Amino acid sequence: MFHFSFPGTGMLRAPDFRSVSFLPLIAFPFLIGALSGCVVGSFSVSAAESGVSSGLFSAGLTPVSVPGALWHSFRFVLAAAFLATGILGVVLVPLLCALRGFSFSCSVAFVMQARSLSGFLIAFASFGIPALLSLPPFFLAATDAFLCSRAFLRRGGFSGLQRTPFISHLILIAVLCTANALYISLLLPKLLPAVS
Question: Could you give phi then psi for residue 12, rounded to 5 degrees?
């Protein structure tokens, strides 16, 4: 275990990254959802079109205000945080990951199928760059939510969980999701006319 020393604060423990071992449990439902979303987005145009129009999928194709972009960036992270507060999160967090994978890949597949050649650039600008900013915080939040829910199930509370990694994870999640929201609301409307 590493220790860091800061003047006036004494010794602080480095974040405990044992939650990384739960990442495959979180990533597998995401991949299953992504594969099924890719099939739906590619071959069932009417289902994908109704999903995009209902707002279930990523709203990368329409300009969004900053508050709307913040909601778009934080919605799955907030859902994971909500699921961390009870024992059902052990089952519902993987289902949330499957829904996130489905909504993401169905949106990308639908755009690429509908726009053919320019669809790749539109999908990259609308979904690829936001995915680089929004998926790592989502996986971090989902893994932490699964850990919290598992601790709640095993111990009847959150005792035994270290606070340090959760605080550093919250800071990282807030920074990346805010950067994603700023990209969606400020830069994406300028990029889309150039790539479409």
Answer: -120, 140
The count of other CB atoms within 10 Å of the CB of residue 20 is 9
For 20, 31, 115, 138, the CA distances from 144, given in Å and listed in that order, are 9, 19, 37, 10
What the block records as the tokens of 26 is: 């979180």
CA angle, 139 then 140 then 145, to 5°: 95
CA distance 111 to 116: 8
Three-class SS state of 42: helix
Residue ranges of alpha helices (H) inside the chain are 23-43, 45-54, 66-83, 89-123, 129-155, 163-182, 188-195
List the structure tokens of 104. 């993401």
Average pLDDT of each block of 10 consecutive residues along the chain (196 residues)? 44 47 86 93 64 46 80 94 89 95 89 76 89 94 89 70 76 95 91 79
Q: What is the 3-state secondary structure (H, E, C) of 132-151?
A: HHHHHHHHHHHHHHHHHHHH
Q: Domain limits of the chain? A: 21-47+64-195
Please tell me whether the overall predicted TM-score, pTM, comes out greater than 0.90 for this model: no
